[in-house]
TrEMBL record:
Residues 54-86, 265-301 are annotated as: Disordered. The keyword Hydrolase applies. InterPro entries: Beta-glucanase-like, ConA-like_dom_sf, Glycosyl_Hydrlase_16. This is Glycoside hydrolase family 16 protein. It holds the Pfam family Glyco_hydro_16.
Length: 301
């Protein structure tokens, strides 16, 4: 809604000894859209702005030179399905973006964003370089309780295509790791805003503000809070090097959202192998750790 400036321009004109004042209102000043992407964003078409999601609960812009403390690199440890290696050194921040790099030997990275929640909205501006033979670029929600497969998994951007021209969606659910799947043709070598909305009645995915996957089968929905993760996964015999980049990430809580009770202390490592590295699993934070995390979230980080 436009807001009229309170200041009025006054001009006085004197005619035959009579003083006459005319009043000219200043032009309305438009109010900034809280759902708009950051001013210097590589992604200008977003689901948040198109659908009017409003200001995010928290966001990361990667303006520094180190990984923010609420983003937790995996490892060092074996990679996806025990193939290759995930190392924190593969996750870097420079030139306003966070990057995960991978080589042909399977040395790559992953990084998770805490705290998580059940139900909400997420959107990230990302770009994926072409890969070869099994280096998949992903944005996903992973169960905070580390109880996959019963805890579910929402892969809302999984790019298996070497040329990065097709994106898949996988909704994992149940003890048998059943899956629902969708796909869209899209050039992900260009900066793209991938978004997910998870409500009690629907899960919907968007790219650059356009819906491309949705389900209302609530029996397949994750049963507990999830946290966002960015991964460049090695599936073996891959060519390289390649990389994926994130310009910014945003998260919205909904009235129905349930905050995660478990989390990771700021600045600590995460894991994709919780049985082998139980000390890196999310847990109840101490009072001091919780206070530090709450302060960061309150600042929008």
């Amino acid at each position: 809604m436009a807001v009229l400036a309170a200041t009025l321009a006054l001009s006085a004109v004197t005619t035959a000894g009579t003083s006459v004042s005319s009043v000219a209102p200043v032009a309305p000043v438009p109010q900034a859209d809280p759902a708009a992407p950051p001013a210097a964003s590589h992604c200008t078409a977003t689901a948040a702005q198109k659908l009017g999601w409003g200001a995010p609960t928290r966001e990361s812009g990667f303006d520094g030179t180190t990984v923010p403390p609420d983003w937790h690199p995996y490892g060092p440890e074996p990679g996806h399905d025990k193939k290759g290696t995930r190392t924190p050194e593969a996750v870097t921040v420079a030139d306003g973006a966070m990057t995960i790099s991978a080589d042909a030997d399977g040395t790559t990275g992953a990084v998770s964003w805490h705290p998580g929640q059940r139900y909400g909205r997420w959107e990230a501006c990302v770009r994926s370089e072409e890969g070869e033979g099994g280096l998949n670029a992903l944005l996903l929600l992973w169960p905070v309780a580390e109880d996959f497969p019963v805890g579910g998994e929402i892969d809302w951007m999984e790019i298996m295509d070497d040329s990065r021209q097709e994106t898949s969606f996988f909704l994992h659910y149940g003890r048998n790791n059943d899956q629902d799947h969708g796909s869209v043709r899209h050039d992900s070598t260009q900066w793209s805003a991938y978004a997910l909305e998870w409500t009690p009645t629907a899960i919907t995915a968007y790219v650059n503000g356009e819906k491309w996957y949705s389900t209302t089968d609530t029996s397949q929905f994750p049963p507990r809070p999830m946290n966002m993760t960015m991964q460049l996964d090695y599936f073996g015999d891959a060519g390289g090097p390649t990389a994926m980049h994130m310009d910014w990430a945003r998260q919205w809580a909904l009235p129905a959202s349930e905050a995660a009770r478990l989390s990771l202390p700021l600045g600590t490592a995460a894991t994709g192998q919780p049985r082998d590295f139980p000390d890196r699993k999310p847990r109840e934070l101490s009072a001091t750790e919780q206070q530090a995390q709450d302060a960061l979230v309150a600042r929008g980080g």
